[in-house]
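Quick one:
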Amino acid sequence: MTKALVTGITGFAGSHLADYLLQEEEIEVIGTMRPRSRTENIEHIRHKIRLVEADIRDAASMFYIIQSVKPDYIFHLAAQSFVPMSWKAPSETLTTNIIGTANILEAVRQLEVRCTVMVAGTSEEYGLVNTQDLPIRESCPLRPQSPYGVSKVACDLLAQQYFRSYHIHTVITRAFNHTGPRRGDVFVSSNFAKQLIEIEKGKREQILVGNLQAKRDFSDVRDVVRAYWLAAKKGEPGEVYNICSGNPISINNLLLTLISQTSVVPKAIKQDIERLRPSDVPILAGDCTKFKAQTGWNPLIPLEKTLADLLDYWRERV
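Output:
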C-alpha cells in the first residue's frame, strides 16, 4: 500500500487529512504525535491508523521514523500554529517550526527516501500586503508580521532549498485561514462559535472579541486537506501554491454570520484588549489560480455550511 506519514495527525488539519486519506485512497496512514498529546480528534479512526510518538524537534526520532516507515508521502503539518502565542513564546515557535522542518527534510536527504514532502505554509507569510498586491499571488513579497509568520517563511524557503540543492520532491502550500469542526477554541471562528453556544446554553451573556475590522480569506478545512493531497500528488516539485477561497470576509461579518445561525442575541459584544495583536494584518485575500490550473481543485463547501458545522461541534461539547 501507499504510505502517508502525517506529522501532527492529532491536530485540527492533521485529523481531517487522515479522514480524507482513509476515505479516498488505498493508503496506510501513519501519524506522529507527541507524548501526552490529546487524541480526541482521531479517536473515531484510531483503529485505522498507526500512531508513533515523536517530537519533530528531535532529529534522531524523525530519522528513525522515516527510516522505519519509508513513506511515499510526508505531510508536514506539525507546528506551533497559534499566531498570538508566537509573540509570547517566539523562541519556542521558531525552534519548533524551523528546526522541526529541517529535521524532516534532512532525514529524507540522508536516508535517500524517494517520497514527496508537502510542507504546510500559511498566508501569514505574506504579512503586510500593499493594496496593489491584492489579491495575493504566490509572487507577492513576504513581509511577515509575527514570529509565527517569520518561522513559516523559513520553513517555506528550506523546502525550496532542499529541492534545488538535493532534488528532494518538496511541494509547499500556503493555506489561507481555514476552519470547521475540531478547530481549537483559541482561533477566532471557533472561539466565537463556542461563546455563542455558551450563550445558547445560558452559561454567559456577552461575547469577547479582538480586532473585528481585519479581513480574512476563510475556507473549510475539509476542502483544504483535499487540496493538500492534490498538491502532493499533482504539484510540481519545488513549487509554492496558495490554497484559498478568494472571498475575504471581515471578522465582524464572520461573527454576524455565526450569530444569524443561532437563536441567541448577545447582550453585549465587548472588545478584549488581550485579544489584540502587537501588529495585525489588515487584509489577507488570496488568489489560487495557479493551484487550480495545476490540480483542478476547487473549494466545494460554502462558508455558511462550515460555520453551521462548527456551531454543531460546540453544541455537542459545551
